[in-house]
């Protein structure tokens, strides 16, 4: 997995980084915790600039963030309710989960959007409540950008600091990236197997 990511970055450079981060945000097959450190390592070895890596990663992630915001804004709460009632098991949530999320979002939406970008699994779904609850787009974009930029810079900076030890780190990141993907798959399977609808929202 790590070798494939590395080859894509070698072939497409900053565009490859942006595409990987876009894919991670829209449908997270590869976590940013693997993508951005590898990109940062490229910068640490001198083949890419650190500023360019951070900008590309942020741009790709923000494209995904805006995509989910637009989808959620278009769907709206009413249509989402029926969809969750029909497909809640595979989404591993019911309407009570949505109500809790709406309550939390109404109390601290801007901070949730900003800091949620730095939390694994939450990062990819932050745009949904923002869109459903019609958070003003300029505010959504600004807070999303702040959190996304901070997260990508942190991960890329960590990778750049290890760039000189690329071979040793690569031997660790390969199994680590596979372990993350397996853990996500196991977590999802467990959620589906143990899912129970707590109540039907009105």
From TrEMBL:
Query: How does the protein's chain sit in the membrane according to the entry?
Result: Multi-pass membrane protein
Q: What is this protein called?
A: DedA family protein
Give the UniProt keywords, A-Z: Cell membrane, Membrane, Transmembrane, Transmembrane helix
Q: Which domain of life is it from?
A: Bacteria
Q: Which organism is it from?
A: Sphingobium naphthae
Main location group:
membrane
Entry-linked InterPro entries: DedA_domain (IPR051311), VTT_dom (IPR032816)
**A Pfam family assignment:** VTT_dom
Protein's cellular compartments: Cell membrane
